[in-house]
Amino acid sequence: MTSVENVGVVGCGLMGAGIAEVSARAGLDVVVVESSQAAAEAGRARLEASLQRAESRGKLDSAQEVLQRIRVETELDALADRGLVVEAIVEDEAVKVDLFKRLDQVVTAPDAILASNTSSIPIMKLGVVTSRPQQVLGIHFFNPVPVLKLVELVPSLLTSEETTTTARSFVEDLLGKRSILCQDRAGFVVNALLVPFILSGIRMMESGFASAEDIDQGLVLGAAHPQGPLALADLIGLDTTKAVAESLYEEFKEPLYAPPPLLARMVDAGLLGRKSGRGFYTYDKK
Ligand code: NAI
């Protein structure tokens, strides 16, 4: 089994920054690629803020020392020498397919693994556009990445055993997380169960059955959930929630996965949850 020695991450948003952070905290050298200089700066600021927070809470000795292991770049070529690249860009199949084609050209190490953090896009669609589908798999982290222990490993029908073993060793032995193995089906294990639950909460609110606060309180106090479905949708991002629901609906054609109109209208309005400052609740925009 080859072991991962350095990591590339594409996208330095909510998830990409988290994946870069946990990889660098595990002692790995990390290169992150963003789509523009402005996005790279925002990503770097996101990383710094998270690491400073960890340092001030006593969970990390030196944010600076970890930051030294992370470079944020804007050209994909910066990933040429990476042993593992994790893609964490927008949840859009066409955009991800295009990126995987380009990664296949750019990443030169013959046994490099090309992974996607996608929540719902079939890994096969990304694998087959590369010359090395046996080295493509899903490594699906959970938000917030530095906090949540779970990672879903998603080999496609063409992924090699060795790729899955190397990826498992990366997430478990290096990052200290727990992994579960899932079939290459939209939503994997967690979102296939969680997304219909969130959509039911949105439909309940949309129909006027109960307020957002009461729905969330109901689940927190009555079912011991750490947060209710609408607060959770705000945390995930309403655009991401809608995109994942659409992929699930596309895959299974079950009404329970169809995004409710209210969710679509909120996304159109730019009400994306915590990241935009307003979703089902209002937040101080950081
Ligand atoms: P986000 O919108 O916070 O970040 C996406 C980042 O990718 C942005 O900073 C954007 O500038 C960058 N980007 C877009 N196209 C790019 C390109 N071609 N090259 C380089 N950078 C590019 O989105 P988020 O929430 O981080 O989601 C990313 C992925 O992770 C999606 O596939 C999503 O489904 C998945 N995911 C999201 C979770 C969540 O709770 N938000 C949980 C688990 C997976």
Automatic annotation (TrEMBL):
Residues in 3-hydroxyacyl-CoA dehydrogenase NAD binding domain copies: 6-184
Gene3D superfamilies (alphabetical): N-(1-d-carboxylethyl)-l-norvaline Dehydrogenase, domain 2, NAD(P)-binding Rossmann-like Domain
Keyword tags: Oxidoreductase
InterPro entries per UniProt: 3-OHacyl-CoA_DH, 3-OHacyl-CoA_DH_NAD-bd, 3HC_DH_C, 6-PGluconate_DH-like_C_sf, 6PGD_dom2, NAD(P)-bd_dom_sf
NCBIfam families the UniProt entry points to: PRK07819.1
Entry keyword Oxidoreductase: yes
Annotated family: Belongs to the 3-hydroxyacyl-CoA dehydrogenase family.
Protein name: 3-hydroxybutyryl-CoA dehydrogenase
